[in-house]
Write a structure and sequence with these properties.
By secondary structure, the chain is mostly helical. The chain has helices spanning about 1-25, 30-50, 55-75, 80-105, 110-115, 125-140, 160-170, 190-195, 220-230, 240-250, and strands at about 145-150, 155, 185, 200-205, 210.
Length: about 250
């Protein structure tokens, strides 16, 4: 019992220490994102990529069933509240540590714009208007190549999961910060639930998987998948993930 408390207490202290180091120690988060996190992606992400379904989604269902079973056992007085609380505490520590290692530290690294050398500055209304007009012209020119179904909705001819990986790799040729291994994104079985929540995708820090809503309109899937894949490069901020997805899709 004492050894177990020491073990879980040590994991809790490690979790707290890593978060403090990421926030307070200059350069630690960037070092971790560049030197350590890619190892996790190259191992855990590769392992989870061996199966076509979302491991995170299955594990979530299992955890919910275990939680329900635990509640029933407590109500039936076959499991004490104290033991149940101890199990929950250990699970919380383990999940917090995994979140920290696979996601949390990366929130405090250098931004993608800093790494890529972009100069952030305010844009005038005229510049934004000119950009919109330019994008409209490009969209109109590309419209002829878009395949649609009988009702006029866009259809993707490509394998969108494989194409998204190629897009990220193409973007990495200009932005080395994006180089490295990419697993295929996985369509969630619970895509309808994602739609009710108005979510296009989600990155699972516990399995290092890029998951996406398979019920989205076809034109939304490429950018949504590239957005989630960008998190596997350690760029966690949502606005930057959107920008990286834009760069990848253009590439």
């Amino acid at each position: 019992m004492q050894k177990s408390r020491v073990f879980w207490g040590s994991l809790l202290l490690l979790t707290v220490g890593l978060n403090l180091a990421a926030r307070l120690v200059p350069g630690f988060a960037e070092w971790y994102a560049v030197q350590v996190y890619p190892i996790i992606v190259g191992t855990l992400a590769r392992l989870c990529s061996l199966v076509p379904f979302s491991v995170a989604e299955i594990l979530l269902c299992v955890l919910l069933l275990l939680l329900l079973a635990g509640i029933l056992l407590v109500l039936a007085r076959k499991l004490s509240v104290r033991k149940a609380a101890a199990v929950l505490a250990k699970a919380a520590v383990a999940l917090c540590l995994m979140f920290t290692l696979n996601c949390g530290i990366n929130y405090h690294r250098q931004t993608f714009s800093e790494r890529a050398g972009f100069e952030i500055q305010e844009s005038s209304v005229e510049e934004l208007t000119a950009l919109c007009e330019e994008l409209v012209e490009e969209l109109n020119a590309a419209a002829e190549d878009i395949q649609v179904d009988s009702e006029g909705y866009m259809m993707l001819k490509e394998d969108v999961e494989a194409e998204a990986v190629r897009a990220m790799q193409a973007a990495a040729e200009e932005y080395p910060e994006l180089a490295g291994y990419y697993p295929r994104a996985k369509k969630l079985l619970s895509s309808r639930l994602m739609s009710y929540q108005q979510l296009q995708g989600i990155y699972s820090p516990f399995t290092v998987e890029a998951n996406y809503n398979g019920d989205m309109p076809e034109q939304d899937k490429p950018s949504a998948i590239c957005h989630e894949l960008s998190h596997l490069k350690g760029f966690m901020r949502e606005d930057e993930a959107n920008f990286i997805a834009y760069l990848a899709c253009r590439a």
